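User: Hello, can you help with two protein structures?

Assistant: Certainly.
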Amino acid sequence: MSARPDRTPLPRSFFDRPVLTVAPDLLGRTLVRRTTEGPLELRITEVEAYEGESDPGSHAYRGRTARNASMFGPPGHAYVYFIYGMWFSLNLVCGPPGHASGVLLRAGEVTVGAELAAKRRISARSPRELAKGPARLAAALDVDRTLDGTDLCAGPDSPLSLLAGTPTSADLVSSGPRTGVGGAGAEHPYRFWVNHDPTVSPYRAHAPRRRST
């Protein structure tokens, strides 16, 4: 019989490490989202690391702005952004204050509150699709810009927190290029996922968006 996931909240020191150390260590952890309708929990199965001002694929590559300010720390906070005028994405800030690194949560398994998630993800054809991809994950967990800057280490009253869960052993973790990242950051092997997990999203190479004329 497998052990139950560990319910111990992860401390700020977990996030205050290099982003490429934190990213694979997030796999198997439990993200808790508390809403007015009830709690949801997610077993994280896919992530992407972004190294900040040294990373051409990062929002912080060109420096600090009002949009990306949460990326600059302190660690253990949420960075939520709006993309393409349609979707939100949830990132966890890592490293020391001022460094601007973070991990994008790309996919996971909803283990608590699947009924609530399904109400927000009516197009999902099965439970495994509820949070399969970063926009779907955010929608399933009711994540938007109001959660930008949320402290995941603030205790049980915080709308977001991270529990120890069941860390994924290194032999079950794969890595490769990030999905949809173009330019100089395209080939960085900063995407990490749980091997053969059905909730992991399919890889898609970067495709330049066409501009209307």
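That covers the first. Now for the second protein you mentioned:
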Amino acid sequence: MHAALPLRPEGWARRVEGSWTTSAALRDRVGAHPWLYVDRGSRTMERSRHDDTWNARWVLRDSGVAVVGARADTLVPAVAASDLRRETVEQAEAKSAWILDDPDVLDDGWAQPYAVLTLCRLLWTAATGTVTGKVEAAEWARSLIVPARFRPLLSASIGYRLHPFDPISGAADPVLVPIAEDFALWARDEVRRRAG
């Protein structure tokens, strides 16, 4: 199925990504057994920790929709806020390291908003011990917690979800690149602080 999916004519078929796991693995600690993962547009699956996270388990338990079989909340144990917060700090450090190791990533019209919105989602989780969508987290952060200098960056990143910065070149707005780098470092430190 996964080998054939990216060859379908529908645009969404090349954007599907996700993981397969077992109900037993959902009861194990994160990382105990890497799940089968298929990346966007890939025709092969591989063992990966990509989706084997407390965050993904929280979302599955809270928002999962059963197509067939048991409800997700009967298969996935409740996720402790302390596990979410600990993972959030690790993820914020990894995202900021990614940016510091390769600052050119912020020139990319997909990667810059992805990094900014993901960091907003991590801020939300560090503050609340729950999970929400990237746009919702960015709107919350923009209105309540970020310094004023970052608000235009968050607004642009939210807007990107609907329209790329530059669909022809794929580039991000160059004015926002240094602001995004500063935001990544600020957000990393704020996640640490809020996660305790």
